# Entry
Amino acid sequence: MTTTTRTKPTVSVLAEHVSDHLSVFVVAEDTDSARPANGGLRLLNYPSDAACIADGERLAGLMTHKHDLYGTGFAGGKIVARATEPAAVKDELIQVTASLLESLDGAMITGCDLNTSLEDMERLTALTPHVLAAVGSPVDASAATAHGTLGAVEAVLEAELSQATPGRALVHGCGAVGGTVARVLVQHGWTVFTADLDRARASFPGATPLPSDCPWWEIKVDLLIPCSISGLINAEMASALKVAAVVPAANAPFQHPQLADELRRRGIRVLPDPLVNAGAVIADSIERFSPDAWEGAGANDVYAFVRQEVHQRATNYLNQRDQGLSVGAALVEVAAEREHDPIGLSFGDAA
# Structure
């Protein structure tokens, strides 16, 4: 049995806590514990509660798209928290988030995001079971996302990295995801330019770190792999890009969606970011729906599964585009190819 993507599901604030120094909002589809919403806990110094909620709605919508593309068994959601001094409210944030999750009785499950760590999730797990963050597991969510990104790269190359002719790549953002992707490309003989606000993260053997004032968008490369912030690429940058393909691990890397369409009209292959960066939610689906297989699996087993699943769907997307389908229609076809059961159960079947 197959299904298609749902159209424009509504996300709203399901639970909230507002005080003088900390606001926390659970923003998700209206769902329940049978199909819980899933998305990380993000802590930022938002300018207002309204801005915090708006970002939560945007992110929950992106999560919905990602969950639907891969049939994770989850709905879209996000927990967004606002504090003037984020580092100073961690203890309260953990307590408040646990209380909100308990009040929803399993309708929302969270994990790490900006300014929250695995250590935070370990503390949260001690207070509520409604957490999926590979706590106590050798699996790392960021590594899963990186391996999914590599699967998307291989789909663009139409070959495994071990068999592809090395080219030139630019990885923007060399944190837990981008750093892994860049290192793997270097290991396979690629010329890899790296850009990061923290130059130390961009500097490792085999990489070519770019100066902070370098117009990286003017460098001619085969692959541009954004792994940093949303809205990274503006109109000026997009018009100057000299790339064969853009494979974004970052959410919404373009300041305006039409910029990606303009690149496609120029013959540049641009993969939609929810197709590329789904590694962590695929891992969540395994942890949730195949707990026995999850417990018995090694990290590399999970990463290989993620890489293959992203590779398969990215390849299907590119094939549909080559046949003339629009981006939206191609993504509908990608979603329709999945099995009705959550993707995590496929790992259980294979284990």
